[in-house]
Amino acid sequence: MAERDQLVAAIENATYASSIHNAQPWRFEILGDSIAVHLAADETPRTVDPIGRWALASIGAVVANLELALEAATGQEIETEVRVGGVPPEGELAGGVAYAERPLAVVTVTDVAAETPHLTSAERLAEVIRERFTTREPLTGGAPSEVEWAEVEAAVPGSQGVVAGRRAPAELVSELLRLTAAAELKRQDDADYLEEVEAWVERTESTGIPAQAVGLPDAEGRIPTRDFNQTPMGSAATGEAAFFEHEPSLLLLASQSDSPLEQFLGGYGMQRAMLEATTLGLGIGVLGQALEESDSRAAVNAAASEALGGDVVVHQILRLGHPASPLTHPRTPRRPVAEVIL
Fold it and tell me: What DSSP state is assigned to residue 262?
């Protein structure tokens, strides 16, 4: 039987998962040797995530961390029952509200010792849970090597084989950058979006995006990172810019359909890929703006389907590469662990 202090420590590590605008929309309930993971739907941004795609992905990401942290702490096999399913909710139940009344996953420490290779892998990834971060800085130290690509892609099928990591070919990279830039530009005329972004920059002491993590734009305008300097009253940017890599490398988290389960697993696979990339010394950026509205998301899926051959639904786009020098990464705040345990 797992000790409560092991469970609490694993929960605390799990909360270092990626989440939209660092909303951390998760809550945990300790049930003996199990931990039920709930979605706090009222803690998620709604303009940027109207139907709760990013909310479900955030829960998938925290479950990935929780599994690794528990296995590394206890040395036991971990079983996870995912309870996400059905069709995307609409209307008053959108934005993750439909999932707020029940656990979305139950993660259990079994009484079976983990096999050594699996435990070693879990320990390796668990060690970098708190080191992982996303960046809006240039990655000009070189693209991932073929070996690194293989290792990052191999980290993703842990998401029950539904979501896969797919390296974007060069022609698709160009189209994804174009679609992302168009989506980002459109957002700059959306007053509700700008108000929401402004509210999430340094939102509280334990959530939101520190101003130091906002980053500088690409001086040549080729890589459209999310602009957190735009406000309803105009831009708060300093006017400074940085020169980004000329040929960005993109990893797609993709599946063949778009059920809530696959949205959850998209976040799960993304977190696993991010952790593997961290062990390899890769910088990790996120280019998800074009996935936030139905029209631009459809265009991304069409482009990816044509380039990769077959129907593809893209759940997230990661920019990977080596930094030319150590990246600056102010710590994003985290909720106290006592605050997230029910």
Answer: H
Answer yes or no: is pLDDT of 159 > 60: no
Residues in the chain, overall count = 342
Instruction: Summarize pLDDT for 181-215 with one digit per residue, the tens.
Output: 999 999 888 899 888 888 888 787 888 888 777 78
Question: Are 89 and 35 contacting, i.e. CB atoms less than 8 angstroms apart?
Answer: no
Distance CA 73, CA 277 (A): 22
d(CA 4, CA 167): 40
| Phi, psi of 29, rounded to the nearest 5 degrees | -125, 120
SS3 24: coil
Q: Could you tell me if 167 and 320 are in contact, meaning their C-beta atoms sit under 8 angstroms apart? A: no
Q: Are 66 and 11 in contact (CB under 8 A)?
A: yes
| Tens digit of each residue's pLDDT (9 = 90 or more) over 97-112 | 888 878 999 999 999 9
Helix (H) or strand (E) holding 305: helix 294-308
Which letter does DSSP use for residue 240 in this model?
Answer: -
| Cβ atoms within 10 Å, residue 229 | 18
Q: Which domains does the chain have, with CATH numbers?
A: 4-133+331-340 (3.40.109), 164-321 (3.40.109.10)
| Token output for 275 | 């952790």
